[in-house]
Amino acid sequence: MVDAEKLKLVEDRQALELVPTWEAQGWWYLAGAAIIVLIISLFIYSRRNKNFQDPDKEKREAYKTAQSDFAELGEMDPRGMAVGVSLILRGYLARTVKEPALFETHEEFIGRHDSLAELPDDVREETSEFFSKLAELKYGPGKEADPDLAGTDGDIVDVHPVAEGIKAEGKTLLERIHAA
């Protein structure tokens, strides 16, 4: 019959010895480092392009808006034109140089030492003088009390040329501020 000793299974190895082992080679480290660098580079690139905006885009858009606002100003008296021109210029300054002039009174604007700090000195001085002129027209005595606007017989003469002069001066100042 069959010998029981011959049918007995003999294991000459341990089970863990049969499991294949993996040894890292040098190029695996290089591939891993390259993948990490690639991921970081893509992340930085996507964030930079996502946040990138043309710095002059807002300035160009504000300029176009101000020009169209000037074109929409109709015929009006000097006081109304001064208010309209002042709002247009202050709105442009608020958008381009982050100037809070739109939300300040004339006295606050002129009294602030850092107003229009981003503009060159000559443009800053010209802007301050023009805003003072506009304030004079807006808050000064009415046209009835202005002898320059009264005719020889006391009748009020056409005030539209004065208003158009204010509008033209405002446009010129807008050009100078935009070019600065």
UniProtKB/TrEMBL annotation:
- Keywords, sorted A to Z: Membrane, Transmembrane, Transmembrane helix
The regions listed as transmembrane in this protein's record are: 26-45
Domain of life, per the record? Bacteria
Instruction: Identify this protein by name.
Output: DUF4381 domain-containing protein
